[in-house]
Each structure stands twice: as structure tokens, then as C-alpha cells.
Write a structure and sequence with these properties.
Layout (H helix, E strand, L loop, with lengths): L2 E2 L13 H9 L8 E2 L15 E2 L4 E6 L5 E7 L9 H11 L17 E4 L1 E2 L2 E2 L4 E6 L21 H8 L15 H19 L2 E9 L2 E2 L12 H4 L9 H15 L7 E8 L13 H9 L5 E6 L10 H4 L3 E3 L5 E3 L7 E2 L2 E2 L4 E7 L9 E4 L5 E4 L10 H27 L25
Helix pairs in contact: 2-4, 2-9, 4-9, 7-9
Length: 435
């Protein structure tokens, strides 16, 4: 926006000569304003949108819960990868609302469309645009929330930051935003699987007080089919009904409960991550803690490791039958010194109870008057089951971004075969597109 010669200069703009400035002001009537574009110092230019993740494999999500739709732009995707809408739809169907009684009753098909970046069934290397329309909005349900803030929701802080907010559905703070994450994560998972044989799997390991014991799920053999065989996404049959009962107990009261999602990465390449500020676990924490309702992150032994001594906690090394250096235990969670060591990467993400509940709560209005509010909106009684594909997506996005960084820095020139392993070249030979 243009400034004027009669206005104060923007912070950081070049300050005009005071004597000349006064003379010029005297030549004009006070009502006459001459537009002058302010000069902003580059150091004061701020990029703070917050909707983009990644350095090499860059994902930007867009859209709001009650807008026209949601989606993502994926920039930096390698070319010549077979990709279709069906590839994305599998994970979008796992995330979509209205699946069963323990999810929000909002009905959305979440049918995706790819509008760019794919030609003749393969990626072109240019930005991929994925769009999913919203079809089941209920704006009037949020009339009360346009005045009063929902406790523990983002309503108040969005007002504090922006001075305005999208009331219907919570806008960008809604979990509906994760559609773009899951769509882009499906692309990342396909790259990892085809190029490296890497598999990312997540499952619900806790609902309220129902907790899977350590070791009750074999991370070497657990499958997606086992996880998806039930509505709570727990691969241990002994605990499925207990978890569902815990969710049902709060659901019928209009309340909600929290849970924990465990995520593992099998056949992860060695060498991902960087020292100090670019540690792999730091990037994973940043990614999964950006998911709505996430409140905690552990990797490997996590907080439980604080009860052990170093002699009990250390993962001793050995050389396997193929001459590869391995660890006998995996309390490190597949990451040491911020760099992946080739063992299974394991982490846990805690999710708080859904804040939008159908129980009367004390709050304040936008004009700071105390009141009571009952949220008459649709919500998940426990977000953990639907968070499973979202966690997988964010972990996959981190790994692909780190894979591309590793290739650029450490695999561009010949490696040291005594200490390093080449990145897998299992990527299939692709026929050129008919362009």
C-alpha cells in the first residue's frame, strides 16, 4: 500500500533529509497528499504464513473447514513418478469424517482432484495441485461461537493474533486442514516405498486409561490390514473393545477423551538428519506437533528412559550376518545423534481430548463478558483413530524432505563404501510420458 509524504516513514525505510523534507511539506496544502512507496529494508521483510512445510519437498496446505474446499500444493516432487488420484484417495478415505460412530458425524466424501503436476499418469516435476471440495458445511451451528470463545480451542488466540477469525468450523484451526497433509503425505509414502522400500505405519496405542503394554505389538511384523481391521485402529485384538468402550462412554455424554498414536518407520535409510538444529527427531517433532490437538512427542524410550541408567539404556552394537552394523536393542528409536541408524524409527504422539464438546462450560465473549457456552457442533469424541493417517503423512513428508537433502549433500559425489551405504536404487524404470 502506498504511503504519503505527509505520513511517518515506515520502520526501516530510508529517512529523508530533514531540511528538504520540511521545505517540500511547506509547498503543499495540508490536504494535498503525494503518494510515495516506502522503501522497506530487506531485513524487515517477514515470511510468517505458517502453511508450508519442507525445504526440498515443499507442501503448502490451503482452505478452511467451511470454505469452498481444502487441499495442497506440492512443490519439488521428482518427475516421472506414476501418480493418480486413486493413490491419494486410499489415505484420504482413512482420514475422512463420518466413517463410524466414534468419529464426527460430518459427512464428506473427500473425493480429490489433481489439477496440475501430473501428465499421462506420471508426475512432471512441476507443482502438484490437489483439491477436495467441502460439501457438508453447517454455518449456523457456529452462531454462538461468533460471540463466545470455546475453551481450549484456537478461537481466542486467533483473535489475539489476527484481530479477526473465521468462525464457521474454526477456519484454519480445524482438523479439516489435514486433508492437504494426507494427500501430500500419500505422495511422499509412495516415493519412500518405491525408492527405498521404506514403510510408515501408525496405530492407536492408548485411549484414555486403556494402554497397550510395551511389546504387545510386534513392530517387525505388524501390517496395515491389522491396523485397519477395526474402527479404533488398534492392531492388538485384546484391547480393541476396551478402547471403543472408553470412547463410547464419553461420546454418549457429549464429552471427549484423549489418546496416543504410535508411529513406526521400517527399512528407514541410514544417514537422514543433520547435527545440532537439523536433527531428525527435531524435524519429526516439529512436523507431528503441528497436527491439531497434538500435545506430546516421544521418540524411542522417551520419558521412560529417564528411569534407567546409562548401562541399561545404551543400545549395544554388533555386526550382523551381512556385515552391517546393528544395535541389539532400540531404545534410541532408530535415531542417534540426530541421524537415522537404519533401525526401526519409533515415536509416540499424544492427542488431547477434543475441545469442542456438548457440555456447558464457562467462558467469555469477545467483548470480555463472562458467559456459558454449549458447543452444538459435530466433533470426534476421540481424535486419535482419525489422526493415524495424518501422523503417517507428516512423518513421510519429513523423511522424503530429508532423503532429498541427504542425496544432495552426501550422495552427490562417490561415497565412502567402508562407512556409508548407497541410497537404494530400487526405483522402477519408467517409460517416458507421451508429451
Amino acid at each position: 500500500m502506498a504511503s504519503s509524504i505527509a505520513s511517518k516513514p515506515f520502520l526501516g525505510a530510508a529517512k529523508p533529509n530533514s531540511s528538504i523534507y520540511s521545505d517540500i511539506q511547506g509547498l503543499f496544502f495540508s490536504s494535498l497528499r503525494v503518494p510515495i512507496k516506502p522503501r522497506i529494508h530487506k531485513k524487515l521483510q517477514i515470511q510468517a504464513a505458517g502453511s508450508t512445510y519442507g525445504d526440498y519437498f515443499r507442501v503448502t496446505t490451503f482452505g478452511e473447514s467451511h470454505g469452498g474446499g481444502v487441499g495442497c500444493i506440492v512443490d519439488g516432487c521428482p518427475p516421472r513418478i506414476p501418480l493418480s488420484e486413486a493413490d491419494l484417495q486410499i489415505d484420504l478415505d482413512r482420514r475422512r469424517p463420518g466413517q463410524n460412530r466414534i468419529t464426527t458425524p460430518r459427512k464428506e466424501t473427500d473425493t480429490c482432484r489433481i489439477y496440475s503436476g501430473v501428465s499421462d499418469g506420471v508426475t512432471t516435476g512441476t507443482p502438484i495441485h490437489v483439491f477436495v471440495p467441502n460439501t457438508d458445511q453447517r454455518g449456523p451451528d457456529y452462531d454462538d461461537m461468533s460471540i463466545a470463545y470455546r475453551p481450549s480451542h484456537a478461537d481466542a488466540t486467533y483473535d489475539m493474533k489476527y484481530g479477526i477469525r473465521a468462525v464457521e468450523g474454526g477456519g484454519r484451526s480445524s482438523a479439516r486442514e489435514t486433508v492437504g497433509r494426507v494427500a501430500s503425505g500419500a505422495i511422499a509414502k509412495k516415493i519412500l516405498k518405491q525408492f527405498l522400500g521404506t514403510e510408515v505405519l501408525a496405530y492407536v496405542s492408548q485411549v484414555q486409561q486403556v494402554v497397550l503394554p510395551d511389546g504387545s505389538v510386534d513392530h517387525d511384523t505388524v501390517t496395515l490390514d491389522q491396523i485397519e481391521s477395526n474402527i479404533v485402529r488398534c492392531p492388538n485384538p485384546e484391547y480393541i473393545d476396551k478402547m471403543i468402550a472408553a470412547i463410547d462412554a464419553v461420546r454418549i455424554r457429549g464429552d471427549s477423551t484423549g489418546g496416543v498414536v504410535t508411529c513406526i518407520v521400517r527399512n528407514a535409510p541410514r544417514g537422514l538428519g543433520s547435527p545440532v538444529f537439523g536433527k531428525l527427531e527435531a524435524e519429526l517433532a516439529r512436523a507431528v506437533m503441528s497436527i491439531p490437538a497434538s500435545k506430546g512427542f516421544e521418540i524411542g524410550s522417551g520419558f521412560a528412559g529417564t528411569f534407567l541408567t546409562g548401562s541399561k539404556h545404551n543400545d549395544e552394537f554388533f555386526a550382523d550376518e551381512h556385515g552391517r552394523i546393528r544395535t541389539r536393542t532400540n531404545r534410541s528409536g532408530g535415531i542417534q545423534g540426530g541421524i537415522s541408524n537404519g533401525e526401526i524409527i519409533s515415536m509416540r504422539i499424544a492427542f488431547k481430548p477434543t475441545p469442542a464438546i456438548a457440555i456447558k462450560q464457562k467462558t467469555v465473549t469477545r467483548d470480555k463478558k463472562e458467559t456459558e457456552l454449549t458447543a452444538r457442533v459435530r466433533h470426534d469424541p476421540c481424535v486419535a483413530p482419525r489422526a493415524v493417517p495424518v501422523v503417517e503423512a507428516m512423518v513421510a513428508l519429513v523423511l522424503v524432505d530429508q532423503l532429498m537433502a541427504q542425496h544432495a549433500q552426501c550422495n552427490l559425489f562417490p561415497i565412502n563404501p567402508e562407512l556409508q551405504e548407497p541410497l537404494s536404487l530400487n526405483f522402477p524404470m519408467l517409460k517416458p510420458a507421451n508429451i
